[in-house]
User: Fold Dimethylhistidine N-methyltransferase from Terriglobus roseus.
Amino acid sequence: MSTTLSTPELFTPPLANPVQEAVATAVLEGLSSTPKWLPAWLFYDAEGSRLFERITTLPEYYPTRTERAIFAGYADGIIDTAIRTWQKTHPGRTGRLRIIELGAGTATKTGILLDAAVRRQGQTEYLPIDVSESAMAEACASMERVQSGVTVSPQVANYVTDALEIPQHNGPTMALYIGSSIGNFDPEEAATILCNLRRQLQPGDTLLLGTDMVKDRRKLEAAYNDHDGVTEAFNLNLLRRINRDLRSNFDLARYRHVALWNEDQSRIEMHLQSLREQTVRIPALNASFHFAKGETIHTENSYKFTSKSIASLLRSASYEPVEQWTDEQHWFAVTLATTE
Ligand code: TRP
Assistant:
């Protein structure tokens, strides 16, 4: 056992807000487990979100730039295929394609697809869904300023834990789930997320799924171990966030960032490794956690895919792949699938 619950104090001051309560519950569960783990949503406080945006522009972090290049090269074909897929199940009917996006974040790549939709049909509706209110505000502001013909209807919601509620639409819907965000979930959770989305879609509607592909181990590990230490700072920031929210005192110098390719599971694993034996007391939890030297906290997975594993994930959630676009080196894939 690595957890010691100390004698309850007579008075434990209540935490200030619901977010801190959620942090407390997550940290208690994760650090009491063997092996230790923490949920990835803890990364995204204001500083974490800022560091994440920086990760996406790093030279070693090829996924964002590669996916953007695929959109830039094939946006018109993607929009056309989505519309034609819907028309097959609705012979003779017309209707404007609308685009929804799960986990839109600041939506920096989506503009390329919205542009293509506007070129094709003069205007389009865009419904971004994200947990982060600040990221969505930023996304909407930049989109409406730059893109005439785009009507934005944002929704702040957690698509992992909450039921989705997407309004009815007379025409095709294409749902975007890009950035290989699906890879941050276990295969079963991934299938559940896609199934929940599937229930909101109509026959002939489509899902556009962005996935990072299995490739050379060195290339994969470098993407999560950048030279400037931005990913390291992002990972360690999780401890700083816990220190702030739970009044603990993790010494960040006593942990290091580790990112390793796990070939059996086809995933990059991120961990925080304790550089020495230590015990950390978390006053807000009234608990202490012991770390052996070299023990790790598992903080994130990033699954990598093959065309075969993408197809089987999609089929397990009742989608049928329609078409796939990729870069010359097959580093990243963008797959259109339909609800048939
Ligand atoms: N989904 C992307 C990926 O797994 C982006 C991402 C999510 C990420 N969490 C991360 C990148 C943590 C680096 C570190 O690559």
